[in-house]
Amino acid sequence: MLEGMRLLDLSSRLPGPLCSMILSDLGMEVIRVEPPEHLGKGDLFREIPEKEASYFAMLNRGKKSITLNLKTDRGRKLFLDLVEKADVVLEGFRPGVMERLGIGYKALKEVNPRIVLASISGYGQTGPYRERAGHDLNYLAYSGILGLNAPAGGGRPVMPPVQIADVAGGTYPAVIGILAALIERDKTGKGRWLDISMLDGSLFLMALALFDWGIGKPIAPGIPPISWASVNYNVYETRDGQFLAVGALEENFWRAFCEALGKPEWLNLNKDGEAMRDEGFIEKVRELFLTKSRDEWLEFFKEHDICLSPVYTFEEVARDPHVAERDVFRWKPLPDGRRFPYV
User: Fold this and answer.
1) 195 is catalytic
2) Which residues, at least 6 apart from 94, have a Cβ–Cβ distance to it below 8 Å?
3) In terms of domains, do 137 and 56 share one?
4) In the chain, what percentage of residues exceed pLDDT 90?
5) Catalytic residue among 9, 43, 87, 166
6) Which residue has the higher pLDDT, 37 or 79?
7) Within a 13 Å sphere around the CA of 204, how many CA atoms are in the beta-carbon half?
8) Are residues 136 and 69 in the same domain?
9) Are 29 and 92 members of one domain?
Protein backbone atom coordinates (compact mmCIF):
# COMPACT_ATOMS: atom_id res chain seq x y z
CA MET A 1 0.00 0.00 0.00
CA LEU A 2 2.86 2.38 0.75
CA GLU A 3 5.26 1.11 -1.90
CA GLY A 4 7.39 3.85 -3.43
CA MET A 5 7.69 5.81 -0.19
CA ARG A 6 10.87 5.97 1.89
CA LEU A 7 11.38 6.55 5.61
CA LEU A 8 14.70 7.30 7.31
CA ASP A 9 14.62 5.95 10.85
CA LEU A 10 16.93 7.48 13.45
CA SER A 11 15.06 5.99 16.41
CA SER A 12 15.94 3.14 18.76
CA ARG A 13 14.39 1.02 21.53
CA LEU A 14 10.62 0.48 21.07
CA PRO A 15 8.33 3.42 20.11
CA GLY A 16 10.09 4.54 16.91
CA PRO A 17 11.21 1.13 15.60
CA LEU A 18 7.71 -0.28 16.16
CA CYS A 19 6.26 2.66 14.22
CA SER A 20 8.60 2.13 11.27
CA MET A 21 7.99 -1.65 11.47
CA ILE A 22 4.27 -1.07 10.94
CA LEU A 23 4.94 1.26 8.01
CA SER A 24 7.41 -1.25 6.56
CA ASP A 25 4.81 -4.00 6.83
CA LEU A 26 2.51 -1.70 4.84
CA GLY A 27 5.07 -1.45 2.04
CA MET A 28 7.13 1.65 2.88
CA GLU A 29 10.88 1.37 2.36
CA VAL A 30 12.56 1.90 5.74
CA ILE A 31 16.26 2.71 6.07
CA ARG A 32 17.62 2.63 9.59
CA VAL A 33 20.33 5.23 10.16
CA GLU A 34 22.46 3.78 12.95
CA PRO A 35 25.28 5.41 14.94
CA PRO A 36 28.83 4.01 14.67
CA GLU A 37 28.88 2.75 18.26
CA HIS A 38 29.64 -0.71 19.63
CA LEU A 39 32.89 -1.22 17.72
CA GLY A 40 31.44 0.15 14.51
CA LYS A 41 28.62 -2.40 14.40
CA GLY A 42 25.75 0.08 14.57
CA ASP A 43 22.90 -0.09 17.06
CA LEU A 44 24.02 -1.55 20.38
CA PHE A 45 20.84 -3.64 20.60
CA ARG A 46 21.95 -5.76 17.65
CA GLU A 47 24.09 -7.95 19.88
CA ILE A 48 23.72 -7.30 23.61
CA PRO A 49 22.15 -8.59 25.66
CA GLU A 50 20.79 -11.69 23.93
CA LYS A 51 17.16 -10.86 24.70
CA GLU A 52 17.54 -7.36 23.29
CA ALA A 53 19.09 -8.82 20.14
CA SER A 54 15.92 -10.82 19.47
CA TYR A 55 13.86 -7.65 20.05
CA PHE A 56 16.01 -5.90 17.46
CA ALA A 57 15.44 -8.67 14.93
CA MET A 58 11.68 -8.55 15.47
CA LEU A 59 11.32 -4.77 15.30
CA ASN A 60 13.57 -4.32 12.28
CA ARG A 61 12.34 -7.04 9.98
CA GLY A 62 12.24 -5.99 6.35
CA LYS A 63 14.29 -2.84 6.91
CA LYS A 64 17.57 -1.66 5.44
CA SER A 65 20.39 -0.17 7.50
CA ILE A 66 23.24 2.28 7.11
CA THR A 67 25.76 3.51 9.67
CA LEU A 68 26.39 7.27 9.74
CA ASN A 69 28.20 9.45 12.23
CA LEU A 70 25.86 12.44 12.34
CA LYS A 71 28.32 14.33 14.53
CA THR A 72 30.66 14.78 11.55
CA ASP A 73 30.27 17.04 8.52
CA ARG A 74 30.49 14.07 6.17
CA GLY A 75 27.86 12.12 8.11
CA ARG A 76 25.46 15.07 8.07
CA LYS A 77 25.99 15.62 4.35
CA LEU A 78 25.33 11.98 3.55
CA PHE A 79 22.20 12.03 5.68
CA LEU A 80 20.86 15.18 4.00
CA ASP A 81 21.56 13.57 0.63
CA LEU A 82 19.26 10.73 1.71
CA VAL A 83 16.64 13.22 2.91
CA GLU A 84 16.41 14.71 -0.59
CA LYS A 85 14.82 11.46 -1.82
CA ALA A 86 12.91 10.52 1.33
CA ASP A 87 9.31 11.06 2.37
CA VAL A 88 9.60 10.71 6.14
CA VAL A 89 12.26 11.12 8.82
CA LEU A 90 11.52 9.46 12.17
CA GLU A 91 13.50 10.27 15.31
CA GLY A 92 13.26 9.66 19.04
CA PHE A 93 15.88 11.99 20.51
CA ARG A 94 15.24 14.43 23.31
CA PRO A 95 14.08 17.83 22.01
CA GLY A 96 16.94 19.93 20.66
CA VAL A 97 19.25 17.07 19.68
CA MET A 98 18.32 17.17 15.99
CA GLU A 99 19.02 20.92 15.89
CA ARG A 100 22.38 20.49 17.63
CA LEU A 101 23.31 17.87 15.04
CA GLY A 102 22.41 20.31 12.27
CA ILE A 103 19.55 18.17 10.96
CA GLY A 104 16.51 19.81 12.59
CA TYR A 105 13.29 20.37 10.68
CA LYS A 106 14.48 23.68 9.24
CA ALA A 107 17.57 22.02 7.76
CA LEU A 108 15.55 19.07 6.46
CA LYS A 109 12.93 21.13 4.65
CA GLU A 110 15.63 23.26 3.02
CA VAL A 111 16.77 20.19 1.09
CA ASN A 112 13.28 18.67 0.78
CA PRO A 113 10.22 20.89 1.40
CA ARG A 114 7.99 17.80 1.16
CA ILE A 115 9.66 15.95 4.03
CA VAL A 116 7.59 14.82 7.02
CA LEU A 117 9.54 14.80 10.28
CA ALA A 118 8.04 12.71 13.09
CA SER A 119 9.61 13.38 16.48
CA ILE A 120 8.65 10.97 19.26
CA SER A 121 9.69 12.14 22.71
CA GLY A 122 8.61 11.56 26.26
CA TYR A 123 7.13 14.96 27.02
CA GLY A 124 6.97 16.73 23.66
CA GLN A 125 8.94 19.52 22.00
CA THR A 126 7.57 22.23 24.32
CA GLY A 127 6.84 22.63 28.01
CA PRO A 128 8.96 22.61 31.19
CA TYR A 129 9.51 18.83 31.06
CA ARG A 130 10.65 18.74 27.42
CA GLU A 131 14.28 17.85 28.22
CA ARG A 132 13.58 15.42 31.04
CA ALA A 133 14.65 11.81 30.72
CA GLY A 134 11.99 9.15 30.95
CA HIS A 135 10.72 5.71 30.02
CA ASP A 136 7.30 4.08 29.74
CA LEU A 137 6.85 3.86 33.52
CA ASN A 138 7.62 7.57 33.99
CA TYR A 139 5.06 8.70 31.41
CA LEU A 140 2.42 6.44 32.98
CA ALA A 141 3.24 7.96 36.35
CA TYR A 142 2.79 11.53 35.08
CA SER A 143 -0.42 10.62 33.23
CA GLY A 144 -2.16 9.26 36.31
CA ILE A 145 -2.55 5.78 34.83
CA LEU A 146 0.02 4.25 37.16
CA GLY A 147 -1.54 5.86 40.21
CA LEU A 148 -4.93 4.36 39.39
CA ASN A 149 -3.42 0.90 38.91
CA ALA A 150 -3.24 0.31 42.65
CA PRO A 151 -5.28 -1.46 45.33
CA ALA A 152 -8.48 0.17 46.52
CA GLY A 153 -7.78 2.51 49.38
CA GLY A 154 -4.19 3.14 48.31
CA GLY A 155 -0.99 1.17 48.33
CA ARG A 156 1.88 0.71 45.92
CA PRO A 157 0.88 1.08 42.26
CA VAL A 158 1.28 -2.08 40.20
CA MET A 159 3.58 -1.86 37.18
CA PRO A 160 1.79 -2.93 33.98
CA PRO A 161 3.10 -6.09 32.27
CA VAL A 162 3.42 -4.40 28.86
CA GLN A 163 4.61 -1.04 27.54
CA ILE A 164 1.56 1.22 27.37
CA ALA A 165 2.94 4.74 26.91
CA ASP A 166 5.57 3.56 24.41
CA VAL A 167 3.05 1.90 22.11
CA ALA A 168 -0.32 3.59 22.62
CA GLY A 169 1.23 6.95 23.47
CA GLY A 170 4.13 6.95 21.03
CA THR A 171 3.97 4.37 18.25
CA TYR A 172 0.32 4.58 17.22
CA PRO A 173 0.03 8.40 17.24
CA ALA A 174 3.22 8.49 15.16
CA VAL A 175 1.85 6.04 12.58
CA ILE A 176 -1.46 7.89 12.33
CA GLY A 177 0.25 11.28 12.21
CA ILE A 178 2.68 10.22 9.48
CA LEU A 179 -0.08 8.81 7.29
CA ALA A 180 -2.22 11.94 7.80
CA ALA A 181 0.74 14.22 7.00
CA LEU A 182 1.44 12.32 3.79
CA ILE A 183 -2.18 12.73 2.70
CA GLU A 184 -2.01 16.45 3.55
CA ARG A 185 1.24 16.74 1.57
CA ASP A 186 -0.51 15.43 -1.53
CA LYS A 187 -2.87 18.41 -1.26
CA THR A 188 -0.43 21.15 -0.24
CA GLY A 189 2.90 19.95 -1.61
CA LYS A 190 4.48 20.67 1.77
CA GLY A 191 5.70 18.45 4.58
CA ARG A 192 5.10 18.85 8.28
CA TRP A 193 6.84 18.45 11.63
CA LEU A 194 4.93 16.09 13.96
CA ASP A 195 5.43 16.60 17.70
CA ILE A 196 4.48 13.28 19.36
CA SER A 197 4.56 13.16 23.15
CA MET A 198 4.22 9.82 24.93
CA LEU A 199 2.78 11.64 27.94
CA ASP A 200 0.15 13.32 25.76
CA GLY A 201 -0.74 9.97 24.19
CA SER A 202 -1.04 8.34 27.60
CA LEU A 203 -3.40 11.08 28.76
CA PHE A 204 -5.59 10.32 25.75
CA LEU A 205 -6.01 6.79 27.13
CA MET A 206 -7.51 8.38 30.24
CA ALA A 207 -10.36 9.99 28.26
CA LEU A 208 -13.25 8.35 30.14
CA ALA A 209 -11.62 8.73 33.55
CA LEU A 210 -10.90 12.40 32.82
CA PHE A 211 -14.53 12.90 31.84
CA ASP A 212 -15.68 11.41 35.15
CA TRP A 213 -13.21 13.60 37.02
CA GLY A 214 -14.39 16.67 35.16
CA ILE A 215 -18.02 16.15 36.20
CA GLY A 216 -17.09 15.59 39.83
CA LYS A 217 -17.02 11.81 40.15
CA PRO A 218 -14.42 10.43 42.57
CA ILE A 219 -11.23 9.23 40.91
CA ALA A 220 -9.03 7.00 43.03
CA PRO A 221 -7.33 3.58 42.85
CA GLY A 222 -9.75 0.68 42.89
CA ILE A 223 -12.94 2.72 42.41
CA PRO A 224 -15.17 0.64 40.09
CA PRO A 225 -16.17 3.42 37.60
CA ILE A 226 -12.53 3.68 36.62
CA SER A 227 -11.85 -0.02 36.23
CA TRP A 228 -15.43 -0.67 35.02
CA ALA A 229 -15.48 -3.63 37.43
CA SER A 230 -19.04 -4.90 37.85
CA VAL A 231 -20.88 -8.21 37.93
CA ASN A 232 -21.19 -8.29 34.15
CA TYR A 233 -17.70 -6.92 33.40
CA ASN A 234 -15.18 -8.75 35.51
CA VAL A 235 -12.61 -11.52 35.78
CA TYR A 236 -13.62 -14.63 37.69
CA GLU A 237 -11.52 -17.48 39.05
CA THR A 238 -12.65 -21.02 38.29
CA ARG A 239 -12.37 -24.23 40.31
CA ASP A 240 -9.02 -25.20 38.74
CA GLY A 241 -7.34 -21.87 39.53
CA GLN A 242 -7.81 -20.53 35.98
CA PHE A 243 -9.71 -17.37 35.05
CA LEU A 244 -12.52 -16.25 32.75
CA ALA A 245 -13.22 -12.74 31.49
CA VAL A 246 -16.92 -11.82 31.37
CA GLY A 247 -17.99 -8.79 29.33
CA ALA A 248 -21.79 -9.09 29.23
CA LEU A 249 -22.39 -5.32 29.23
CA GLU A 250 -25.22 -5.02 26.71
CA GLU A 251 -28.73 -6.13 27.67
CA ASN A 252 -28.86 -9.02 25.19
CA PHE A 253 -25.57 -10.45 26.46
CA TRP A 254 -26.62 -10.04 30.09
CA ARG A 255 -29.94 -11.74 29.36
CA ALA A 256 -28.17 -14.69 27.73
CA PHE A 257 -25.80 -14.88 30.71
CA CYS A 258 -28.65 -14.95 33.25
CA GLU A 259 -30.73 -17.43 31.24
CA ALA A 260 -27.79 -19.80 30.85
CA LEU A 261 -27.22 -19.76 34.61
CA GLY A 262 -30.92 -20.08 35.42
CA LYS A 263 -31.00 -16.74 37.21
CA PRO A 264 -34.09 -14.86 35.95
CA GLU A 265 -34.10 -12.77 39.13
CA TRP A 266 -30.90 -11.08 37.92
CA LEU A 267 -32.32 -9.97 34.56
CA ASN A 268 -33.39 -6.43 35.45
CA LEU A 269 -30.49 -5.65 37.77
CA ASN A 270 -28.31 -4.47 34.87
CA LYS A 271 -30.44 -1.31 34.74
CA ASP A 272 -29.08 -0.35 38.17
CA GLY A 273 -25.40 0.54 38.01
CA GLU A 274 -25.01 0.53 41.78
CA ALA A 275 -26.52 -2.95 42.05
CA MET A 276 -24.20 -4.30 39.36
CA ARG A 277 -21.19 -2.93 41.23
CA ASP A 278 -22.36 -4.21 44.60
CA GLU A 279 -19.53 -6.23 46.14
CA GLY A 280 -21.99 -8.72 47.65
CA PHE A 281 -23.49 -9.45 44.22
CA ILE A 282 -20.03 -9.78 42.66
CA GLU A 283 -19.04 -12.20 45.44
CA LYS A 284 -22.07 -14.41 44.66
CA VAL A 285 -20.96 -14.69 41.04
CA ARG A 286 -17.37 -15.38 42.14
CA GLU A 287 -18.60 -18.29 44.25
CA LEU A 288 -20.67 -19.57 41.34
CA PHE A 289 -17.70 -19.63 38.96
CA LEU A 290 -15.68 -21.59 41.54
CA THR A 291 -18.03 -24.56 41.07
CA LYS A 292 -16.62 -25.57 37.67
CA SER A 293 -13.26 -25.62 35.90
CA ARG A 294 -12.45 -23.09 33.21
CA ASP A 295 -12.96 -25.60 30.39
CA GLU A 296 -16.22 -26.81 31.91
CA TRP A 297 -17.54 -23.25 31.94
CA LEU A 298 -16.42 -22.70 28.34
CA GLU A 299 -18.33 -25.81 27.32
CA PHE A 300 -21.31 -24.74 29.44
CA PHE A 301 -21.58 -21.34 27.71
CA LYS A 302 -20.62 -22.66 24.27
CA GLU A 303 -24.10 -22.31 22.75
CA HIS A 304 -24.90 -19.00 24.44
CA ASP A 305 -24.15 -15.66 22.78
CA ILE A 306 -22.33 -13.82 25.56
CA CYS A 307 -18.97 -12.09 25.83
CA LEU A 308 -16.87 -14.66 27.69
CA SER A 309 -13.22 -15.55 27.15
CA PRO A 310 -10.53 -17.63 28.84
CA VAL A 311 -7.62 -15.67 30.31
CA TYR A 312 -4.75 -17.12 28.26
CA THR A 313 -1.08 -17.67 28.90
CA PHE A 314 1.31 -17.00 26.00
CA GLU A 315 1.49 -20.74 25.32
CA GLU A 316 -2.30 -20.91 25.01
CA VAL A 317 -2.38 -17.90 22.70
CA ALA A 318 0.09 -19.63 20.37
CA ARG A 319 -2.02 -22.82 20.32
CA ASP A 320 -5.38 -21.13 19.88
CA PRO A 321 -7.08 -22.39 16.66
CA HIS A 322 -8.50 -18.96 15.76
CA VAL A 323 -5.10 -17.28 16.05
CA ALA A 324 -3.55 -20.14 14.06
CA GLU A 325 -6.11 -19.99 11.25
CA ARG A 326 -5.64 -16.24 10.85
CA ASP A 327 -1.87 -16.75 10.62
CA VAL A 328 -1.25 -13.99 13.16
CA PHE A 329 2.11 -15.27 14.35
CA ARG A 330 5.10 -15.53 12.05
CA TRP A 331 8.35 -17.16 13.07
CA LYS A 332 11.83 -15.77 12.51
CA PRO A 333 15.03 -17.79 13.04
CA LEU A 334 17.85 -16.60 15.28
CA PRO A 335 21.54 -17.32 14.56
CA ASP A 336 21.62 -19.95 17.31
CA GLY A 337 18.88 -21.99 15.65
CA ARG A 338 16.00 -20.92 17.87
CA ARG A 339 12.93 -19.14 16.52
CA PHE A 340 10.82 -16.34 17.94
CA PRO A 341 7.25 -15.36 17.06
CA TYR A 342 6.22 -11.95 15.84
CA VAL A 343 2.95 -10.41 14.77
Assistant:
1) no
2) 121, 122, 130, 131, 133
3) yes
4) 57
5) 166
6) 79
7) 14
8) yes
9) yes
